[in-house]
Predict the structure of Biotin synthase.
Amino acid sequence: MNAKINQTKDIFLCAICNIESGTCNEDCKFCTQSVKYKADIQRYKQKEIEQIVEEAKMARKNSANGFCLVTAGKGLTDKRLAFVCEAAKAVKKENLGLILIACNGTASVEQLEKLKEAGVDAYNHNLETSRDFYPEIVTTHSWDERYQTCKNVKEVGLRLVCGGIFGLGETQEQRVSMLESIASLEPMNVPLNFFIPNKALPIEASTIKREEAFELITLARKMIPNAKKIMIAGGRELMFGEEQYKIFDKGANAFVIGNYLTTEGKSAQEDIDELEKLGFKIKRERA
Ligand code: SF4
């Protein structure tokens, strides 16, 4: 397994913390957090701050470099903003050295400034797919709004994390178009997701094959050469199976450890053990 992988490069790990789950009124066809599709997932309003801090400590113990505070929903309301700021301050107080990322949907310059003041280092907002394909996937908000939020992130001086998801029925041209749009924003990190089918969702099956997915990782690295991390996020296990560490040979240098937002990943320790067994160096730098 994974016999000829280049093990010389540093690998970064990132953990996500779903601090509000499954309560979204938007209709993104790939997302189990939308209340419209009634997927069988955990739904809750606000995770306890103590639990968020515990998860951050665990993430650091598991060699995570980044820790992402994710909320469901189209964007930041006053209440949600106050909650994310409270969580960010609590995590930062622990001085764990984590890069703190917020991922809370559409956000204005003013809201992003407040997050920055609370200690958030980076903001994750994915374009998801190409501009022309987006209306087939989401009807409750526009792609342009997403692009504007990414521009707002840059304007306030937060580091931008911006990627997308493949396998929703998009064409190869649309995949390339999304990568071009991401490249135009010059993000720090680019998370790539691969659609995970769920019987509750309107999209029945992923439309991307493993070899195409590997090629897209290489293409993303080529088209966005200055991104510090090309990160493989949701769908890693399902898409790449026993070949999942080959992603590092194709241009990725980071992945999400532990559970994803509504689906379970491999245990972080399992991943770390396998990476180290294969000779990879996990970068444990401090923010
Ligand atoms: S992707 Fe975001 S905005 Fe869309 S349904 Fe899921 S949580 Fe809501």
Notes: Residues 78-93 form the longest helix (16 residues).
